[in-house]
Amino acid sequence: MLLTDKNLVIPLTKSNVHTLLCSYLSGSENSCSIGGIGALAEFHATSATELQSHDNYFSANSELGCISIKIQSDLEVLAYETLGKHEDTWRWGLVFSIPKESCSLPNYTVLREIGRDSNANNPAHRNDLLFDIGTGIPHVQFCIRTNENELISLLQQHEGTAIATPGNPVLDIIAKASPHRVVRSQTARIEVYQKIDPYKTPMGPHTHLLPKLLRGKKSQISIVPIPSTQALQLTIHPENPLFDRYGHRRKFDKATYNRFLPTLMAFSAPEFYAEKMRLRSALSDHVSPEDYSPPNSHLARTAHEIELRQQTHLTSEKKYINQWRKKKRNHHA
């Protein structure tokens, strides 16, 4: 569900965006992404990742890829939590966005050659050609970059075709050649150097390109809670206390949980965080669930459920929390 309350995003200053980016991109358990449903680039830091920050520019570089971010004055951030698939899990993240009227990237729906990559992180690649593969995802370009004449010729032959069309050979051509991928928004770009693995998702920077999902033309990731007037630029995915970097379930890690709390407190929607604190206070005072006035909005109800899920891991009073969970189940029965 997209949230449309104008108060849900908080303007960033250069100092706090630098702090956020350095904090989350220096940890190997965190990741960030640019893109949408069917076409996505992810950057994972490694032990050899080099961070650079100056004025309005931030970058993180590794041997397998890099991310660069231009910190513009209208960049805004929202910290969010969403419900997980299981009744005791949740997801969280940070989304960076700008007003849609600030976006000027073209939105191609077919393969198109767009010129030299003059903004390549490595000067050695600034004469390489970029091809926008035409995902049609608003405010994002998914490109490949190459200086290989054979690949350039093959792509030029198919220019103007929709890559998600069944039978189009372009994706097979790209997978076989495994060129660099460059995925960019108005304010951020991820470059992926490591080869495409057709069988499993590799660790480190990588891309996902799924033509079946692109054909569905549902480009916006629905759980990303930004206002409809904003264009998603970058998502940071902090380490989750219940899942390791491979997505495998693990024992709850309270230290990981605690690390995200200051960010959530500073950058989440006020209504969302207020309900979490209201419920936490009631639980601390051992209020009966029957005496608690229920939240009256979708956002507050989500916050309420997530706080209950988190409390199942944080408290030793499992029986008491289960009374609250049981009340909620009965309410929806």
Secondary structure elements and pairings:
Elements (H helix, E strand, L loop, with lengths): L9 E2 L2 H12 L5 E6 L2 E6 L5 E5 L2 E6 L2 E6 L5 E8 L6 E10 L12 E5 L12 E4 L8 E6 L2 H9 L12 H8 L2 E5 L3 E5 L13 E4 L1 H5 L14 E8 L16 H14 L2 H15 L13 H17 L3 H15 L1
Antiparallel strand pairs: 1-7, 2-3, 2-15, 3-14, 4-5, 5-6, 6-13, 7-8, 8-15, 9-10, 10-11, 11-12, 12-13
Helix pairs in contact: 6-7, 7-8
Q: What does this 3D model show about the protein?
A:
The chain is of the alpha+beta class. Among the domains are: 8-106 and 176-237, no CATH class; 269-332, no CATH class. The chain is built from eight helices and 15 strands. The strands form two sheets. It has an eight-stranded antiparallel β-sheet, covered by helices on one side. A seven-stranded antiparallel β-sheet has the order 1-7-8-15-2-3-14. A hairpin with a 6-residue loop joins β7 (76-83) and β8 (90-99). α6 crosses α7 (298-314) and α7 packs antiparallel against α8 (318-332). The protein is elongated, with a radius of gyration of 22 Å. The relative contact order is 0.18. Residues 1-10 have low confidence and may be disordered.
Keywords:
333 residues; alpha+beta; eight-stranded antiparallel β-sheet; 8 helices; 15 strands; disordered N terminus
